Amino acid sequence: MLRPLFIHLSHAPWARQFITRFVFARRAASRFIAGETPEDAIRVIRGLNAKGISASVDHLGENVLSESDATRAADDYLTILDQICASGVKSHASVKLTQLGLDLGESVCLNNMRRILSRARDCGTFVRVDMEGSDYTERTLTVVRTLKHDYGFDNVGAVIQSYLYRSEKDVRELAEEGVRVRLCKGAYSEPPDRAFPKKKDVDGNYVKLTRILLEAVSAKPANGNGLYPAIATHDEKMIRAAKSYAVEKKAPREAFEFQMLHGIRRDLQESLVREGYNVRVYVPYGSEWYPYVMRRLAERPANLWFILSNIFR
């Protein structure tokens, strides 16, 4: 019941204007957001690195309305990449293509992505292209493929959402092409003709796609095919399934990683590190935190009660 509400609120201008006025809302957001500046993000990443956890930093924003805003967003990514490089922290970057001008035309987006990927390559790091709503799925994968195959960027990867019916086909094709995939469940509101409406089916597809990715890793040397899949979940059932299948297919622990979100299940993150698994945490920062936080609450409404209990202690 709460999931549709939070997804609706994430898109509602009136709700954003009302909710973001309150100090307690910013305190709630701080559970999931590193802060508003690149320096805030680097500070959080240092803390994660000290625990043996890598990061993927995201400068929050989406659906820009002008080329100048898209250029400014790309400039912000160049700034954080420079700070990653200068500080020596272990972090990738995550980007949303609508923040970089996808709605304004593929060429605008490609030009901004080429700038970001060039800087990331100079710093020896990787850029993950986040997946947004299903209206953007095909266009997003087209941009990723163009950047990898036409422009020769090996430091770019995609995200696939297990709630979409099309995702098995996408995962198989991307694995065959050597495109690195982060697998998540999905956090947007989707119609039943595009996405599994029932959680059990989303979970079942997640396990199936995890197996496809781990099988692809075990079939070829990880460094040879460039796959290195990212299993992005806080669901311990999904994690146990991934561990079990990796053992069955003899996929070494260094050939894949688990990914989680900043502020969620820190105990599980650290436990996986102690077990010898690679763990990466998604670290968002910036002033455009409202849609991101609403989607986190939609994914797991129990986060709301956790936040409220901490705010009103």
Folded structure, characterized:
The structure is a single chain. The chain has 313 residues and is α/β, with parallel strands linked by helices. The protein has one domain (33-288): TIM Barrel (Alpha-Beta Barrel). 53% of the residues lie in helices and 13% in strands. It has helices spanning 2-11, 13-19, 23-29, 38-50, 67-87, 106-122, 137-150, 167-177, 199-219, 222-225, 236-248, 266-274, 290-299, 302-311, and strands at residues 54-59, 91-95, 127-129, 156-161, 180-184, 230-232, 257-261, 278-285. The protein has an 8-stranded parallel barrel with strand order 1-2-3-4-5-6-7-8, surrounded by 7 helices. β4, α8 and β5 form a beta-alpha-beta unit. α1 (2-11) packs antiparallel against α13, α5 packs parallel to α6 (106-122) and α8 (167-177) packs parallel to α9 (199-219). It is globular and about 50 Å long. The two termini are 26 Å apart. The mean pLDDT is 89.
Lay out the secondary structure.
Layout: H1 2-11, H2 13-19, H3 23-29, H4 38-50, E1 54-59, H5 67-87, E2 91-95, H6 106-122, E3 127-129, H7 137-150, E4 156-161, H8 167-177, E5 180-184, H9 199-219, H10 222-225, E6 230-232, H11 236-248, E7 257-261, H12 266-274, E8 278-285, H13 290-299, H14 302-311
Parallel strand pairs: 1-2, 1-8, 2-3, 3-4, 4-5, 5-6, 6-7, 7-8
Helix pairs in contact: 1-13, 5-6, 8-9, 9-11
Annotated CATH architecture: Alpha-Beta Barrel
The average pLDDT value, as a whole number, equals 89
CATH class: Alpha Beta
Helix content: 40-55%
Low-confidence stretches: none
**What general outline do the C-alpha atoms trace?**
globular
Secondary structure tally: strands = 8
Report the biggest beta sheet as strand number plus sense, adding barrel if it closes: 8 strands, parallel, barrel
Structural class by helix and strand composition: alpha/beta
Round the Cα radius of gyration to an integer and report it.
18 Å
CATH topology: TIM Barrel
Strand order of the largest sheet: 1-2-3-4-5-6-7-8
Structural domains: how many: 1
Order of helices and strands: HHHHEHEHEHEHEHHEHEHEHH
Total helical segments? 14
DSSP strand content? 5-15%
